[in-house]
Amino acid sequence: MSKLALGTVSSMTGIGAITAALLPFRDDINETTVALAEILVVVLVATFFGWLSALFASLLAGLSLNYFFLPPYNALAISDPENLLAFGVFLAIAVTVGHLSATASKRRSEAERLYKDLEDAFEKASEAEALRRSEKLKTSLLDAVSHDFRTPLTSIKASVTMLIEDNQLPAQERNLDQHGRGELLQVIEEESDRLNTFVESMVELARFQAGDSKLHVAAVSPEEIVLKAARRARSIQSHKLRSGIEPDLPAVSVDARAIVEALYNLIDNAAKYSPQGTPIEITAAKHNGTVRFAIEDEGPGIPEAERDTVFERFYRSNKSAGGLGMGLSIVRGIVEANGGKIWVEPGKKGARFVFELPAVANGREN
């Protein structure tokens, strides 16, 4: 039996089992419970059988929700216009989540293929070198997945739950107006795009950190790097960004996308560890043949004993604001891969993260 056929049978079995299990309690449970249970089936089908099977499961889940759990029951019609909107949102989310899960599964297969390539390289190189590269690839994949998956998934789940639960309330008791629903749908769209972008670049990031991917190096102005990172950080509304860029700075020869990502992560890190309402200052200046970037906050600072270990994988201080302690290690990997160096020092009030990149003069790197 083909993979698509197995996925079709699994979709029918899974959705059928959920429907049969919850139908006797239709009057005692709300549609939110049913929707989340059916989306779980879509995710599992996508993970094991691919996108086409996930699409079939999404449509089957939508039909089940409509026919058995939305009034009028046992009919492919929806009496309440608000329920029609909720059904449309559910179907869109089910299709999107199924697509993302299927894409993640595909990328995971590519990662496994890369790991197999490393095992083959083990026979051609020394044992120590092959083991080092293999372990570095695995830890890079773990870093990327755990660091970037959690926040978008949390936002999507929270938005979906709010939309569905608000729809169950009587019209006069609902908390969300059309604008509020639009904002939640925009969050779902943005975070889904963020997840999709991450999945597409996951293997590339693993190769980059393991030294298997070439950098897309080009001369870029420090002003452009700061501007792009600041634009991305506009979602951090709890702090005001201040910039101080020295005039007539030389260009730096780097992978601009990666350096912007590193600078944004440092801004995000400063926002997490400093009081709301305090400014975050970004500066760029010439220094001995390099361009020195600095991000300074007004938080508690970092003790001298932790200024080296803070860049290690999985390191979390007693003042940790959450996360798995991998963001700064990824930042260091990006900076060092671009020929720079990074460190942390005391600022005027809080912590000051500094990294230097080689400047370019007369078309040549200094």
Any overview of this molecule?
The chain has helices at 3-22, 31-49, 51-69, 81-124, 127-148, 150-168, 178-210, 222-232, 256-273, 327-337, and strands at residues 217-220, 240-245, 251-255, 279-287, 290-296, 341-346, 351-361, 364-365. By secondary structure, it is an alpha+beta fold. It has two domains: 3-210, no CATH class; 217-365, Heat Shock Protein 90, CATH 3.30.565. Strands 1, 2, 3, 4, 5, 6, 7 and 8 form an eight-stranded mixed β-sheet that branches.
In short:
By secondary structure, this protein is an alpha+beta fold. It is 59% helix and 14% strand.
- Per DSSP E runs of 2 or more residues, the count of β-strands stands at 8
Structural class: alpha+beta
- Can you tell me the residue ranges where pLDDT is under 50 for at least 5 consecutive residues? 320-325
Number of helices: 10
Write down the secondary-structure element order: HHHHHHHEHEEHEEHEEE
Mean of all residue-level pLDDT scores: 79
What is the helix fraction of residues, given as a range?
A: 55-70%
Q: Please indicate the count of domains.
A: 2
Proportion of residues in β-strands: 5-15%
Terminal-residue CA separation? 62 Å
Shape call: globular
Radius of gyration: 25 Å
